[in-house]
């Protein structure tokens, strides 16, 4: 670890009345711009009487949470200026987009990245018109918003993103607003525990601010309707020191309201400075810092603060009615138009903006300058800080292969030795995330160079379990937190890997949706620099979860990801240890993708030597000429295709049976690593042209395809190429239980014997002529099942199968476990 930067130690002081008045003016300006964005498309400073045609025909946006967000932003700016903080602002109530757009505009950042939206009257008109408008920007805190790393399209992940962003950024702070509606979600409730994983010396600070404005879209919120002492106990139970503030519910002088909150914020920041100072002192003395009770703020204010008190005789401020657009008929009725006019003028824009339409200099001076502006923090555009990983040459870690299938290795264990050295060479910028499964997925070699970061209580034996205050492995039994931490880490310019059981990665389906959308949009934003790809390693997969049973058997995450934009998604199914190394090297070098890599952890044959593995992965798919029986210059009679490590074994076994039983049959074997290669080249950047596809799979030759996941996905990917519906796919069809590995395959008709039967059924002239062979295959299935049900293990001809012609058993690569059955982790 390099030298840890010091926490800023500028002496704090209470703000003067004039400073508080400037903060109040800045807040009024931010609120005025927020309301203007929701409602106006002309007359941005109300220098003409407000007319209906000045109001947008479609009113979209969220007002209710916005004034609280802008209030907090204004006070964070004061703290940054006074204390020299490096800060970012993360908004869980992401639909408060107008407030954050307004803040970045007032700080000048917005005009820097979007010069057409200048600091003048015309720029204000553009700012207002573009919001929630065709061809404009979204209503939430989106990638288009400078300073954002947290999109507001989904609730629940503000804290996990913030903690991920603060890892390895010891001199920075994330002011993180948690909406009280968001606080009702499971992921957010769990993410309060992230404070047990942050090292107070080597990581940055998250200051959670629970924004209690009382209402969701149509109902009160739970945490706003419990007694304060109960809420305080809840936050203390999570390991925080809660500080409380209430404002906006009476006619208190605004300066006094700002003064009271400044005192609360200063108390929180003073506590943080004390914690950081103690942590630095302990580190210098080589002592472990006891986990601190980090401060958090409970900020209670009315929903729709400073908006209309009532509309049409119904309570609006402090009610769910202010959640979105309080004056929905402002363009349609004179009464609502007059209400909007009074609301906008209540902020006194003539006092806030000069004749040209720019924020008055004395108000603008309340914000920080340069990169200390939260909207201009380089970490919020993490690609500008990103540096390539230092990757050891994966060729040095490959398994020696004298003949295809002649060596046995556990793919993820082999990968773990490489990841160990990746970690060692990137101790400030690379982390591995996973829900308690790093060792279970056999990546434990990384513990030779790092520990699992942990800052809850320690017991005497924990060191042997690789628990330590600092470490590059982050494990918490919550896929949501691992995903959120990793996203925050990547979005701020670093690198990481998410290792998970295949069946349970579905827990983050909606989170990865949002991240993929973020990548898609940032590809279109010139000023957003590319970030490292989000790479999943899915192991303990469907075909080797026979011991855990049906609950652990689901390969559908691939289907979910293929729904995303082609320019963002990549799916890889390396068939052995060497192709896994090559694939992962590629993924960790890549940017702006979501990479899904599926690989088993049990001992499996290694089919390709080092150079052949690299070539095969570079192509993405290819003919294994040594595995087939086709004759040069002649079309094959059938193509046996496969994607996935276990389907590859079954395909190879079927090819061997056909070689022995039907020596004159011309069989081509095709293995697919990059699943996107099956698409048409007009559908995906990795897709094949029709000519290239036909060159591999033939034009009208039957194809029997053994696939790792649900079979219909292959049909979907290849539908443009499969003009004669000749591709027959075998895969998982939701037949699972606790059984033997081969019985799992038979239950889903993806076993070697069924593949041979498929060839007999689909190659012209074989059906009747090879009826006896087909019956032999059916009988083999019966024998295999009976053996499994009698002995509890697979029949020896399957369990001991090898590709070669006999003789010596396959060589085990170093570190391969003696047993071949599944574990129960």
TrEMBL record:
Q: Which cofactor does it need?
A: thiamine diphosphate
One Pfam family linked to the record? XFP_N
Name one process (GO BP) from the record: carbohydrate metabolic process
Q: Which domain of life is it from?
A: Bacteria
Q: Where is this region: Disordered?
A: 804-825
| Entry keyword set | Lyase, Thiamine pyrophosphate
Q: Where is the composition biased (Low complexity)?
A: 808-825
Enzyme Commission code(s) on record: 4.1.2.-
What's the top EC group for this one? Answer: lyase
Alphabetical list of Gene3D superfamilies matching this protein: 3.40.50.920, 3.40.50.970
Every copy of the Xylulose 5-phosphate/Fructose 6-phosphate phosphoketolase C-terminal domain together lies at 601-803
Q: Which family does it belong to?
A: Belongs to the XFP family.
Q: What is this protein called?
A: Probable phosphoketolase
